[in-house]
Each structure stands twice: as structure tokens, then as C-alpha cells.
Amino acid sequence: MDLPIFWFCLLAGLWSAYFLLEGFDFGVGMLLPFLPRNERERGAMFQTIGPVWDGNEVWLVIAGAGTFAAFPAWYGAMFSGFYLALLLLLFFLIIRVVSFEWREKSESAGWRAVWLWANAVGSFGASLIWGVGLSNLLYGLPLDSNGDFSGTFWDLFSGYTVLGGVTVVLLFAFHGSTYLTLRTTGDLCERAAAAARRLSVIAALAVAGFFSWTVAVAVDRNDKDVFPPILPAALGIAAVALAVLLVFARRSGWAFVMTAFAACLWVATVFTSLYPRVMVSSPDFGNSLTVDGASSAHYTLVLMTVVAAFFVPLVLLYQGWTYHVFRARVGGDEVETPPPAPASGGS
Amino acid sequence: MTVASTVVDLARAQFATTSIYHFLFVPLTLGLGPITAVFQTLWYRTKDEKWLRLTRFFGTLFLINFAIGVATGLVQEFEFGMNWSVYARFVGDVFGAPLAVEGLAAFALEATFLGLWIFGWDRLSPRLHLATLWIAVAGTWLSAYFILVANSWMQHPVGYKIVDGEAQLTSVWALLSNNFALRAYLHTILAGLIFGSIIVLGVACWHFLRGHDVDLFRNAAKVALIFAVPATFLQLIVGNRFGEAVTSQQSMKIAASEAQWTTCQPCSFSLFQIGGFSEDDETPGFSITVPRLLSYMATGSFDGQVQGLTELQRQEELKYGPGNYMPNIRVIYWSMRVMAFAGVLMFLVAALGAWLYWKKKLERARWFHRTALVAIALPYIAATAGWILTEMGRQPWIVQGLLKTSEANSPSVSTTWLGISLGVFITLYVVLLVVDFVLMRRYARPDLPAQEEMPAPAVSY
CA-CA distances (angstroms) from residue A82 to A74, A122, A148, B253? Predict the structure, then answer.
């Protein structure tokens, strides 16, 4: 396999890791206004993702910088073309990031509500934009012969891309609810399971519709055959269908595995449908960016491959350990035993 | 003003705003992290509760600050592509690599291990828990290195060749050992330690002033001074050596920072001047100068030659064609002085504090408490001026000698889009700054009522 193709696949892997992990963070965030009944439960929900969300967001930094290093032309065209969408995305991510640290800094109910909603709105908005954005890579945007975007903000929205956004929102909400069933106890866990059941069918329908449509778009607009894009699409649809059955059978562990697969298979479907292009140009199909045309030179790709071969497994290893450390469920019912806390410096 | 130049100006304004803002939070993270880790290490070693209280107290300030650093760091990574797509295509092969390595090798460490530290108080052994903080700190220090490797390549490109109008990396070793990067790194790490120690000292003095928990904060002040005195002193030397590197690699920047129009040997250093900032007015109306000092600062010798702006401009025109190759002289001259004067002031504050501590007068010298409290502003002023000097001093280049800023922006991004984004960033950042300031003040203040005591981080969410 030559290096540009390897990096195209590796980026699919990095984006999958990001959406698998931050997908459930976003899901938990979107459910924040709806699941908990009291302050203790709200705190518990925050605590299920509190120790890990920043580690999860690392994969976005890695995938973004990896695109910059391995495919500079793709990075430049994508980030400048999606300018206003990314501005919104940054806005949503920022209000969400600070909400984690700031919410608990005051007891006031109004203050806490503001940051809870900041997290919820941020999670919802970011999921929506990721869905619309990735769909546009395949659906095609007007690019000029330099690979620069030549359209308007509204070109980002079509029936297909909007369905992409909605599907990703539903999939992440579902993924977040299955995560919560594994990480909480008592009443809160019951309600998370009920939410998972309610979300499962509609998320599965959306995924089925959107993934099928993606294969059709790949054929129509990106000059692809039905195979191979149909393979990850079908697997993705099978994964959410199984997840529906599993949440109703109350096998929450396996249901979470299936929603995680579905998040990864979304990325796999998009990337398989894209190859050998990385960004489809429409209407001037000839201006599309390709894997070979957008990639860095051999030396940089070799260097980055060595770096990735060492660090990706290492990061996975210590992040895996983090999940092991925080494996204990958090409850809405009982108060956590505080550590032997002496008075703080401000007493 | 043409539309094209308006777009570039707006994009520059936005990048300057977001990076200066980002760098209000980064250096405090670089410095407060290790100081907090020292407190926790002292607690681990001595089991003396006062160190645990200081760990908790300053750890909370560290985390409030860290949150914005993370949030605004993402903006920086996105902006290279959003606003500077031509630049991104031109440099991606070289510049993208250190950014990607930063994510994989450094940011992953700090983000993951800080999560472990915040929530791990009752889940990890004290030894392991302490280790998570040190690993996170190591992550922040590594992170700074890779970011500065990337930035230094813009100041002094090394280890590359130009193929089809785009830069290609030819030597990763040259990139990582760029002498510009190594000096910038040392300069930045010292800046971080100065931020951390000056702020810990200022907060401690605030508590002395109110007579609050004096015994506890005397320990904090002591640790802060142990960092502050050598860091502020070394920074004066390192900053000077950094200037030498700039002289050999970015002569125009040095000449501009001195408003030195004519080539001189030996050269006197201008401490203050009125006028002398434009070609029509090369001689200042009033100035205070120190003989031979500029020669020493720029070249390491009291007899060194410093090339003047007029001559450099002529050389650059010969090399790159007609055009203006001078940055904004007035801004560069003053940013250099603001940075240097603030640096000297911080050294004086640290030295005075140490002397008072040694004389056992630190808790009673109220005039010094007020001084130290005001001095909290100094590292912020110095760092901002330093980056203005570094980045505006490089103009008109975005990559020194290779690509001009005016040719590097995203062609697809219109003035309307830029207007919207600049408005959004400014509004959002102002709100964040206000909230951050209120929270920092609240958690640092001496009259924290008992019910508002910081909860143990492990159960704080």
C-alpha cells in the first residue's frame, strides 16, 4: 500500500476514534437537560464523562493536525471552504469545554443551568455540524481549479447533508444513552435505558436511510460502484439494528459496542465512498481533490508514519487505562465518599 | 484600501486577537502546573497538610485557567486552514508535522493525565496520583516545544526545499534542532515559570495584605520566590541571547525594534525616544541612549555592527524585488521596550521579595504586598508585547523570505465572513475573559467564606 492511501485509511481511523469517543460525550451532553431529576443526578451525569472528555477531544486535534501534515491541500480547502460552519463548530465546542470546569464553580442554580445548557447546546450543535460537514465532502461543493471553495455558506445545505446532520445527532444521542446505562446506577440508569429504547428505533431508521443514501450519492456524484461503499454502509445499518434489539433485550454492554461500531462505520462509509477523492467538487467534478493530489511528499509521510506507529498505540494504551481507573459506576442516589479532604487553602 | 488588502488585514487582526488571547492562558498553565506539582510533591514527602491545602488552592486556579487554554487552542489549529489556506498548502508538508506530533505526543498526555489527576484523588495511590500531575506538566512542556518548532520555522525556515512552489521537509532533525526554536523554547518556558511564580507571589501577598492565613501563604510565597528569582534573572540573559539569534536570522526585525535607520558600529541602545519612526523623520526629537549596549545585545560584542533599516531595505529589494520590507517600526520599537522593561521590573519585584523574605519582613511589608499584587499584570504585558514583536516584526513575511502574508490568505474567505467571525470571536472571548477573571478572583481571594471552600476535585463535578 502506498503511503498516501495508508494515511487516508489512518485518518479514517483517527476520525473514527474521535467520533466513537466524543460521540458518547456529545450524547451525554444532549441528554443533560432531559434525564436527571435533581442536582445530584446532574452531577453524576457530568461525572460519567468528566474525567475522559478532554482525552477524547484529543483525537480531534490529532485528526485535524494529521490532515494538515499528510494532506495540506485537503486541510486548506476543507477548513477554508467550511469557514462559517467551522466557526459555529468552534463556538459550540468552546462553550462546551468551559462548561465542564465552570459549572461547579458556583452553587447558584441559575449559573449551573447556564453551563448545563451550554454543554447540551454545544454537544447538539457540534454533532449536527460534523454530520453536515462530512456529508459535504462526498456530496460535493463548488471548488475552483486551485481547490479553493467558490460557493456560499448555503451551498453546505442540501436534503442529503441535512439528513446527515440529523442522523449524526440521533446516533450520538443513542450512543450517549447506551454509554450512560453502563456508567450510572439506580434510577438514573433506568431512565438512561428508557431513553436508549426510545432513541434506538428512530436513530436506526435515520442511519438506515442516510447510509443507503450515501451509497447512492457515491455512485451518482463520485463515480463509484456500489461495492465497496455498500459494505461499511450495510455493516453500519446491521450494527444499529442489532443495537435496537440489544437495548430492548437489556444487554446494555453489547448495545454500546454496537452504537460504537455504528459511529466508526459512519466514517468508514464516508471514506470508502470518497476514495480516491478526498473532497468532491460539484458541479466541476474535475476540480475534485484526490488522495494523491492533496498529499504531502514521501519524506513527511514516512516521518509521520513512524510517529503514528509509536504514539497511536501508546495513547490508546494510557487512555484505556483511564477508562479502567474510572470504571466504577456513578450514582444519582448515593453521595460519593469524599477523599480525606482537609480544609482548602481558602478556609 | 483595496478589498484584497482588507481581507488580509482582517484575517491578520483575527489571528492576532485569537493567538494573543490564547497566550494569556498558555504560559500560566506552563508555570502554575509545575508549581502546583511541587506543592503536591512536598505534601507527598512530608505529609504536612499545609502543602495539600496549597495544592488544592492553586490547583483550582490552574484548572480554571487550563480550560480556556484548551478551548482557545483548538481555534488556533483550525485557523491555519480557515484563514490561511494558501499558507497551509505551502507549508503543510513541513509545518503540519510538528503540529500533528504535538497532538499525539504532548496534548494527548496533558489532556488524559489531567483528567486522571482531577478525578483520581480517591482512586489512585498517592504516589501514582502525584505522578499523573507531573506527567500532565511534562505534556504541557512538550506541547510548547512542538508548537515553537512550528512557529520558529516561520521565523527561520530550515530543513526544507521548494518543489513546485511548495515547501517540502528534507530533514526532521534540522527542523527539531532549529537554533531559533531552541532559544524560543527556553524563552517561553522561562516566561511560563515567571507567570506561575509571579502570580503565586501576588496571590500570597494579597492574603498577607488582608492578614488571612499568613502562615500558609508564607510557604507559597517562599516556593514562588525560589522559582521567580532565578527565572526572572535567567530570562534577562536568555532574552538577550534570543535577540542575537534574531539578529543573524531576521536582521530587519532587530533594526526595526531599535528604529535603527543607519548601519552603526558600535551602536547605542535607545531606552526611550520621541519620533524617529519613519523615513521622513529618521532622527528622534528626543532620546535617552546607553552607549554600545545595542551592539552587545544584538551581536554579543560591544563593538558589533548592526545593519540599519535603509540598507536592509535596499538589500531585500535586490533579493526579492520592489516592495516595502519593513515592519511597522513604531509598534516594533515599543513592543520590544515594553517587553524588556516589564522583564526587568519582574526581576526587581522577585529580588525585593526574596530580600524581604530573607530579612523575615515579607509578611509585614504592606507596600510590597501592593506592589506584588499589581505585578501580576506584568507577565501578561510582557508576553503580549513579546509576541507582537515576534510576529509583527516578521512582516511583510508570513514565512521569512519565502511567502508573504499578503499572498497567503484563503481566497474563498470574504470580508463578510471575516467580519462575522471576528465579531463572534471577540464577543465570545470577552465573555470568557470576564467569567475567567471573576472565577479566578473568587477562588484566589483571601475572604473565601467557609461554605465556598473548594470542593475536593474528585467530587467537584
Answer: 12, 18, 11, 35
